[in-house]
Amino acid sequence: MDTNRAPGPWRITFDTNPDDCNLHCIMCEGHSKYADETHHSHRLMDIDVIRKTIEQMTPRGLREIIPSTMGEPLLYRYFDEIIELSSKYGIQINLTTNGTWPSLGPQKWAEKLCPVTSDIKISWNGASPKTQEYIMCGSDFSRRLDDLHTFIEVRDEIVASGGNHCCLTLQCTFMETNLDELEDIVRLAAELGIERVKGHHLWVHSPKMQHLDIRRSAESRSRWNTIVEKCRDVAEHSRLPYGKKVILDNFIPLPIEDNTIPAHWVCPFLGKEAWVNHEGRFDPCCAPDEQRQELGMFGYVTDNGGMEAIWGGVKYYSLLYGHMTHSLCKSCNMRRPEEGCGRD
């Protein structure tokens, strides 16, 4: 056993309500037109799973939690209790939302979220109404933009009064549909005062999506690399209102002639972060559910010993040091150069 390993993950993602969403984004594992219909049962995490795991793991280095990145976490019926747990244990929430601000609207959600969050990632997949509304089916571009202005105003007022500085991020899924609009998304972030644009390449969870994958051919990878350089140039010259550059995360050139992830690129998650599915099952990463189960069964955080026992157990240790024997890990589009494995 490696005694140098952290006693626990610094961040845990809880799949709180993966089936609750008010949009049908085309890249979504559970809600898009490409989704397997078997994913549409009503899965809901018991708040006790979150409560007990936070209580156990905060003394072991837990600093952040992420409510579900599948579905819309602001629809989780126990979200207010997550905010209470964050305050009680002194940990921050890292949130990804589709930006529809359900029930409360952008102002009230900003007032609730900004004081307790480290980063709020707002899904944003087009610079034009046509592209944004095609990818994020059910979204109204004009309304989302107005809501974003409102949310930013509240965030900035909280910061100006000496409150918590919650970073704001535009979160993209890199795909053919929005490739040519990524530069304008970076410009939009700079104009709005949003500090970061972050994205990940599309997880292809259905053969029908293959044509959207930028990594699929030498020609598409070459076009991606050109866009990366253009986005970096935009970030350099289109500054935030206070002069800093917009941070670009995962805008990384790809090998053109070879469609394999370079062997020296590393996993940013193993030994650092953990996932818990709606039933309390420990998962080692954020790969689509059927694929990540190929990595093994590690147990449930509701079992005796909880996450601490799993994190320090032989099975997880074996995956940590042998994950590159798995085909999923070898081809994983989340691996990146080691110098790019910072805060996500």
Plain-language structure description:
By secondary structure, the protein is α/β, with parallel strands linked by helices. It is 33% helix and 14% strand. Strands 9-8-7-5-4-3-1-10-11 form a 9-stranded mixed beta sheet, covered by helices on one side. Strands 2-6 form a two-stranded antiparallel sheet. A hairpin with a 5-residue loop joins strand 10 and strand 11. The radius of gyration is 20 Å and the shape is globular. The two termini are 27 Å apart. The mean pLDDT is 92.
Secondary structure: elements and pairs:
Blueprint: E1 11-14, E2 24-25, H1 47-57, E3 64-66, H2 79-89, E4 92-97, H3 105-113, E5 117-123, H4 129-135, E6 136-137, H5 141-160, E7 167-174, H6 182-192, E8 196-201, H7 218-237, E9 247-249, E10 273-276, E11 282-283, H8 289-292, H9 306-311, H10 314-322, H11 327-330
SSE order: EEHEHEHEHEHEHEHEEEHHHH
**Helical percent range?**
25-40%
Q: How many beta-strand runs?
A: 11
Radius of gyration: 20 Å
Strand arrangement within the widest β-sheet reads 9-8-7-5-4-3-1-10-11
What class would the helix/strand composition place it in? Answer: alpha/beta
Which consecutive residue ranges, at least 5 long each, have pLDDT under 50? none
N- to C-terminal distance = 27 Å
What is the mean predicted local confidence, pLDDT? Answer: 92
Major β-sheet annotation: 9 strands, mixed
Percent of sequence in beta strands = 5-15%
Describe the global form.
Answer: globular
Number of helical regions: 11
